Amino acid sequence: MALAPVAAAPLSDQVYRRLLDAILADEFVEGILPSERDLAATFEVNRHAVREALKRLQQARLVEVSQGGSTKVLDYRTEGRLDLLADLLVRAGTVDWKVARSALEMRASIGADAAALCAARAPKTHKALLKVADAMDRHLDDLAALDADNVVFWTAIVEGSANLLYRLSLNTLLDGLRILDASLGDDSVFELAREEYRHVGELREVADAIGAGDAERARRAAYQHLRRTVTAAGG
Amino acid sequence: MALAPVAAAPLSDQVYRRLLDAILADEFVEGILPSERDLAATFEVNRHAVREALKRLQQARLVEVSQGGSTKVLDYRTEGRLDLLADLLVRAGTVDWKVARSALEMRASIGADAAALCAARAPKTHKALLKVADAMDRHLDDLAALDADNVVFWTAIVEGSANLLYRLSLNTLLDGLRILDASLGDDSVFELAREEYRHVGELREVADAIGAGDAERARRAAYQHLRRTVTAAGG
DNA sequence: TGACACAACTGGTACAACCAGTCAACCAGT
DNA sequence: ACTGGTTGACTGGTTGTACCAGTTGTGTCA
Lengths: 235, 235
Fold this sequence. Notes:
The structure is a homodimer. Helix content of chain A is about 70%, strand content about 5%. Chain A has helices at about 10-25, 35-45, 45-60, 75-80, 85-90, 95-120, 125-140, 145-160, 165-185, 190-195, 200-210, 215-230; strands at about 65, 70-75, 90, 95. Chain A binds a DNA duplex through α3.
């Protein structure tokens, strides 16, 4: 019998999670949050725990607090930032596939541009990329290993692009992937990934183009490869 | 006479800022932060203020705190997320142009893809876009107005792309722009923008392609327009 | 030498108070 | 019908202190 560990998140994290869910579900009338003292009372925690949670919500641009006045909910579409991905992707235990599709589209766009930049700036990456592609070919049945290798492949390209923002975006997107993974378990939903991994040859093409320093070819190859998954996901 | 409001940031925000700067400047030996009590003592503030700041750093994936153990600095390249842009762009009062160039590259990539998606999904956006382009033509000498209109133009395209993540990325990028603006004042550095606005005709071309539902033409036109600024910035 | 126990850290939570803004209502004065 | 001042009941911001809980190093004892 496998007993899962009991989650022991700090109180402020739990409060953050609760408030976040309530905000995204638009549960506050007029978009006005109760006072910190009231929240502390209803959650039956100390006011400091509430304050720490509110500070995080504030940083995520989800609320606006002002001394003396009340704390208001902001529109995350116009105020929120990309880091919300992880929180928007899975809500109330169900995956928002529209958000997931958005993430795949973004991955394709940035992945393609990163490949082009990598070809222009770090064609030497080529060797490492081919090695990963070889490894992937060697275990086409091990989905977990393929996942890991795929991450290595694209991380190398993004590193080669010498674009810090692409690196950070990749982190954000991978974070979303992790959330998705945890939410779906080892479910069959990763048919998408499985299908993508059937085309390791295309990764090789990307690597070749990068090795040749041919930015446009690298871009096209990467875009074609990544875009297929978007289409498969209903884009 | 224009009187600017007096800045009165909460203590925890100031502590956050100080710690952030120290972290990005790699000022902590072995990447280990002093204890909360020590930080409170050195900053001469209450421990709660320090805790609120640390919660935010934790959320930004800049530090890892563990009860009983010490708080460690994480590598923002591998752990940080896109929201760091605003903090990385301007440090110690000077602009990091490498980061700025990265942002411009990302803008070009996402802007082009958003234009393509907009053409496919919301060709009707075309009308509003042309109206903005007209307005821009009408006041080619008013940089502030051009800036505002430009934001409206691209926001409309991103809305039309129906991609929530592009919307959030736009927010993040615009945030960076605001930071840049505030840091540089009305400085001459916005030669870049000025040059971009000399090509309002290209925006019209983007709008036309979108109106025609021609995704690839919209992508090419948008990319060409946005990419020029990247090149001008030394990309 | 190894296992255990303790002490001295660390972060996490709590209560109680007070400072400092906001807002609405009311009240002069103009 | 306005202006500005006053008041009181809210709001968030700050503080100090105490204690709980987990980690880590150290020293003792078998």
